Amino acid sequence: MDSPDPSRSKRTAFLLSQLGALASARFAERTRELGLTPSDAGVLRLLGRTPGLSQRSLADRLGAVPSRVVPLIDSLETRGLVARVRSRADRRNYELRLTTEGTKALRTLRGVAERHEAELLAPLTREESAQLESLLSRLASAHALDTELHRDMGVDRTTRRVTGDAG
Fold first, then answer.
1. What pLDDT score does 7 carry?
2. Smaller CB count within 10 Å for the chain: N or C?
């Protein structure tokens, strides 16, 4: 395999960054219209796929320190989207579960995400969209990224301390 042209790879990384920023900003606008943040949306999605996570497990999955997750869950709980339920397996812990309203919000978010993706990929054919997804999945896998959610990239996983702008 030929080694990539260094000037080309710098441009590709820049374009990926630009498109990522655009996609993030537009998604934030769409979630804001629902009274949610992208972080709220990510937690709802994760709890919809894996109900019963503890706050600590959620923090680990997000790559965040647990103290940063508490206010997020507090906010979702106050809005009636998430409930803390005492764990049957370990009474010292609480499991996080979507409420009926949380499930409705997640369903709405799925529609928003589908329209968001369709708009972003509109200039591509179905075949090109599939190829792009395949290539991006391969890159994400090669860089050990979680393809299900954004992780807090500013947290040192060994010390659990914020190491930079974690956003």
1. 56
2. N
